[in-house]
Amino acid sequence: MNKNPKKYKYPRFPEMSLHLLSGMETLCDKNWNSDSKRISDEYNRLYCVLGGKAMIEGCRGQLILEPGYIYLIPGQYKFSHNCPVSMQLLWMHFQLEFLPGLDVFQQYEPEAFYAASKSDIAEFKNIISDIESSSPVVFIEQRALLLRLLKDFMPDDWKTIQPAPENAERLKPALELLNKKYNQPFDLRATAKTVNMNPAYMSDMFRRTFGAPPSRYLMNLRIRHAQNLLLTTDRRISDIAAECGFENPLYFSRIFTKRCRFSPRHFRQNRGI
């Protein structure tokens, strides 16, 4: 027996989790147009164009969506879109978290696309065709296929996405508390207590380590959960607002619209494509 287990130089992220939220094949037409209004969501989009053409535009400039490629649009990337001619599109929404609430593709700038092989397209179709399956075997197969499709978008080195390891490890209890109680009122003192820090010092370290203070991180979680429920359930918007920590549905709608550029109802109707 090996009494000296291998020590890893960089984190293995044992809690890395993949959430496949929704997906289908859609015929987009001139109505797939954000009217130059830039949208942004908390989940990642994966596109595979089968026919036709469309355009998206964001901080990286204009990107033409054409057949024969697989495209990745990271969460929180602000972009507008339009489809002057019809486009047959395979799409999926997903999250790939390496720490609770922290998505791999929101920590760096991945490649925008790669050329799709016939097997890539076949696997994309297989994933979305069984997306509502209740079979555990299909569940595993879907995620294995999705991870393979994401391989070319992944960073070459974990250091690319890893926050300061010492800070991340020390703040992990605070991350876990916020994720566990995301729908409860924010309590900075209670959050800081989990890591035995002064609240102001903890908040500053949290911001420097994860790119946002705890209060903003919590709001990101709430909006993310709301988007997921809007995409995957038929529950009333007022019920979703309450479950995500918003006592006032009107306030929820205002915050959601400000963050996502669409009202919750419009977001659901368009399925966030």
Question: Could you characterize what this model shows?
Answer:
The structure is a single chain. The protein has 273 residues and is an alpha+beta fold. The chain folds into two domains: 17-159, Regulatory protein AraC (Jelly Rolls, Sandwich); 165-270, Homeodomain-like (Arc Repressor Mutant, subunit A, Orthogonal Bundle). It is built from nine helices and nine strands. The strands form two sheets. Strands 1, 2, 5, 7, 8 and 9 form a six-stranded antiparallel β-sheet that branches. A three-stranded antiparallel β-sheet has the order 4-3-6, with no helix packed on it. A hairpin with a 2-residue loop joins β3 (54-58) and β4 (61-65). It is globular and about 55 Å long.
Short overview:
The protein is an alpha+beta fold. The chain is built from nine helices and nine strands. The protein has two domains: 17-159, Sandwich (Jelly Rolls); 165-270, Orthogonal Bundle (Arc Repressor Mutant, subunit A), CATH 1.10.10.60.
Let me know the CATH homologous superfamily of the largest domain. Answer: Regulatory protein AraC
Strand content: 15-25%
Q: Summarize the helix and strand pattern as letters.
A: EEEEEEEEEHHHHHHHHH
DSSP summary, beta strand count: 9
Distance between the termini: 52 Å
Broad CATH class of the largest domain = Mainly Beta
Supply Rg.
Answer: 20 Å
What share of residues is helical? 25-40%
Main sheet specs: 6 strands, antiparallel
Q: Assembly state here?
A: single chain
The CATH architecture of the largest domain can be named as Sandwich
Q: Report the mean per-residue pLDDT as an integer.
A: 88
Question: Spans with pLDDT under 50 lasting ≥5 residues?
Answer: none
Per CATH, what is the topology of the largest domain? Jelly Rolls
SS summary, helix count: 9
- Gross geometry: globular
- Number of domain units: 2
Structural class: alpha+beta
